[in-house]
Structures are given as structure tokens and as C-alpha cells.
Amino acid sequence: RVDLESPRGRRAEERRAAAQAAEVVVGTRSVLRLFGPGSLGLAAFVSPDQLLGLPDFRAAERAFALFWAAAERVRPDGHLLIQTRNPGHYAVAAVSRQDREAFYKPELKFRAELGYPPFRRLALVTVAGAEPATGARLADRIAAALGAVPSLTAYPPRADRRQRAWRIVVKGGDELPRLLEDAFGDPEIGALRSRGIMTVEVDPVEWPS
């Protein structure tokens, strides 16, 4: 059993060597890095539905990329098994058919309908206050102020698991960075920012759950 994301140093090297010599390896997605193309007789995913259900618009894309990477490591006479409750999902079907286009077409349609990249740009605004109640109030007011800006769509704040920070997703067009800069230069929002901690990430690569 291997998890390359945790141990380091000599212990990690020993685990890598043991995994490469083993007949059966159980691990996280990082274990695929140990094996080259066409080197596996079987690759299997046990209940990967949680990957498809993550609250991230890139969830299907990342699941598809992981499935495809595993398929590339299976030799021609080998097998790729995906145990899922949703075998009709286009990410699973595309890998089964070995057809990238079968993934991209429905994925682009989904993103176009909901206004996700590449059709619109996103920003992630994170707000925290000295006390949870203060942070929640700041997040609500900032979301309302951003939502009042023409061409911007600001969604209601969502608290993290520890109720210490609130995240606001903002959608906009190509002018999103300029509109955010103008909005945060407004005296009202500036006063709100001074009462807490706020970070803004435009076109975030990682999407927190």
C-alpha cells in the first residue's frame, strides 16, 4: 500500500521500490507516477464517484484525466476497471470508448450553459473576520456589494468546514479583473475590508471543497 503524497526520504524510496516490485499495489492517484505507459496488466478504481461529485466545475475534467492516465499505463492485453454507480457519465463513457471528443463535447456544453471557463472568468473571494459572526457579516455585505456591480455575478458566501472563512464565487467576462479592482476601490468595500482579512484569486486553478 503506497501513498506518495505523505512519506519522504529513505522511507519513501523504500515504498516506491516495494510498489514497483509488487504484483498488487493499492494507493492514491499519485501511485500512477511509479509506472510507465503499458506497464500494468490491470488498473482499477474503487468507487471513484466522489471525484465526479466534488463541488468543483473541473471535477469531471480531473476525473477523466485520472482515468485516462491509468488507461495509458495498461498494456494492450490488460484491463481498466472503473467501479461506479454512474457508468453513463460522459467522463466514464469517454474512457471506455477511448474517445476524448466524447468527453469534450458534453463538458463544453455543460460549461457554456452554466457560464464556466472558458466561456466566462471566475474569481474566488475569501473573507475572514476576528470572530466567526464578524466574518459571516462581512462576507454577506461584500457579496451584496459585488453583486450590485454590472456584469458581475456574485454567489452567496459559503463557509469552510471550520466556519473560519467564507468564500464568494464571482463570475464575469474578460473584464473581470478590472471590475473587481474598481469594486474594491469603492470606499464602502474598502471600509469592510479593513475589518477583516480578504484575499482575491482570479482564475483559480484549485477549487476548495
Key descriptive features of the protein:
209 residues, alpha+beta, five-stranded antiparallel sheet, two-stranded parallel sheet, 41% helix, 21% strand, elongated
Task: List segments where confidence is low: pLDDT < 50 over at least 5 consecutive residues.
Answer: none
Largest sheet: 5 strands, antiparallel
State the separation between the terminal residues, measured CA to CA: 26 Å
Mean pLDDT: 88
Gyration radius, to the nearest Å? Answer: 22 Å
Question: Looking at the structure, what is the overall shape?
Answer: elongated
Strand content: 15-25%
How would you classify the helix and strand content by structural class? alpha+beta
Number of β-strand runs: 7
The SSE string, one letter per element, is HEHHEHHEHEEEHHE
Count of DSSP helices? 8
The helix fraction, in percent, is 40-55%
Report on the architecture of this protein.
With 209 residues, the protein is an alpha+beta fold. The protein is built from eight helices and seven strands, in the order H-E-H-H-E-H-H-E-H-E-E-E-H-H-E. The protein has helices at 9-21, 49-52, 59-72, 90-97, 101-114, 132-147, 176-184, 187-193, and strands spanning 40-46, 74-83, 121-129, 153-154, 158-159, 166-172, 196-202. Strands 3, 4, 5, 6 and 7 form a five-stranded antiparallel β-sheet that branches. A hairpin with a 6-residue loop joins strand 5 and strand 6. Helix 3 packs parallel to helix 4 (90-97) and helix 4 packs antiparallel against helix 5. The radius of gyration is 22 Å and the shape is elongated. The model has no long low-confidence stretch (mean pLDDT 88).
